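Intended use. Records like the one below are meant for learning the mapping from a protein sequence to its folded structure. Do not use them to infer anything beyond what is encoded.
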Amino acid sequence: RRPPRSTLFPYTTLFRSNGRKRSLLVDGIGVPLSLVVSGANTHDVKLLEATLDQVVMEMPGRAGQYNLCADAGYKGAPALNAVVQRDYRPHIKQRREEAHDKIAIPGFKARRWVVERTHSWINRFRKLLVSFEKKEASYVALLSLACAMICWRQTFVICGYVISLCSRITD
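Structure written out for the chain above:
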C-alpha cells in the first residue's frame, strides 16, 4: 500500500526551488560591476541592496549622477529607497512603458537590454549555463572568472574602437 501524500511530500518541500539566481549590476556597455548569487526562490528586490553594495570598483563622476535602469520587479518603496540611498537615479519601467516611449519619443533608447546581453554572455560559458556545482563558493568563483573574462573582452572592444578612430583621424 502507498503511504499518504502528506508523508511523501511534506509542506516544506512544496515551495523549495532548485537552482540559483544571479543578480548583476552592469555599466552602459555591459561590463559587470557587481555580482550576487542566491537561491532561485529569492525575489529580486531582496538581492538589490547586496548587488548595489558589492560594486567592485569606484565609479567615476559625482554621486547622484548614476542612472539605474531596472524592470518592474524592482518597483515599490523598499527598492526605491535602496536605490536613492546609494545615490542612483532610478529608471524603473515596465516593458510596455519602454515600448511606448520608443514609439512616442524620437531618439529614445531602451536600456534594459544591456544587462540581458551580459546574462547571455555569461550563459555562453557552458559550465555556468546549468549549475552542477555543489558549493555556492565554487559557483561564485566560476561566475567571477566569467565576469573577469567579459571585462577583458570588453576592454579590447573599447580599445579597438578607440584605435580605429585614431587611425581614421590620422589618415
